[in-house]
Design a protein that fits this description.
By secondary structure, this protein is an alpha/beta fold. The chain has one domain: Alpha-Beta Complex (Maf protein). The protein is built from seven helices and five strands. The chain has a five-stranded mixed sheet, sandwiched between helices. The radius of gyration is 15 Å and the shape is globular. This is Competence-damage inducible protein. InterPro entries: CinA-like_C, CinA_C. Residues 14-156 form the CinA C-terminal domain. It holds the Pfam family CinA.
């Protein structure tokens, strides 16, 4: 399990470097709106030398009310479906673009545990990418991967896996 977590951390570094390179080449900027990762995605991007040319900033919207107040997610959507939802991820990504004045918005919302949330299991994650009107949302289900991990390791594995999915989805969107 330690190997799996170490590989996940290494992948985060590789993907962050790739995203920064693609954004630099395209002359685009990025911002994040993060719930379960609480700034980890933005920090991973910022760790790359040259990131200041592309990283505008980010919103840490860990509390549900901040998803509405800071990122502009529909209060009705949050009331009806809760924060772990593909449409919430979509609105968070658009909110990152809008609030930070970026070209690309990345969003991450889900359940890192230790307990399920509003009927969603630990390990369910949604990431969103917003790029000049184009939006993409991806879902991650990690229940099987974390089944034998202790809670602390599982929580970190979920958070870094979410960051990796957001970074790789953004890279794929920039490629197409």
């Amino acid at each position: 399990m330690t190997f799996m977590f170490d590989a996940t951390l290494h992948r985060t570094e590789v993907l962050a470097e790739e995203l920064v390179g693609r954004l630099c080449s395209a002359g685009l900027t990025v911002a994040t709106a993060e719930s379960l990762t609480a700034g980890l995605c933005a920090a991973s991007i910022a760790a790359v030398p040259g990131a200041s040319a592309v990283l505008r900033g980010g919103l840490v919207v860990y509390a549900t009310d901040l998803k509405h107040g800071l990122a502009g997610v529909s209060a009705r959507l949050l009331d009806e479906r809760g924060p772990v939802d593909p449409d919430v991820a979509r609105e968070l990504a658009a909110g990152a673009v809008r609030q930070c004045g970026a070209d690309v918005g990345l969003s991450l919302t889900g359940v890192a545990g230790p307990d399920p949330q509003d009927g969603h299991p630990v390990g369910e994650v949604y990431v969103g990418v917003s790029l000049r009107g184009y939006q993409k949302v991806e879902k991650l289900q990690l229940e099987r991967e974390i089944a034998q991990m202790n809670q602390k390791v599982a929580r970190q594995f979920i958070r870094y896996s979410a960051v990796n999915l957001a970074l790789s989805t953004a890279c794929n969107c920039l490629e197409g």
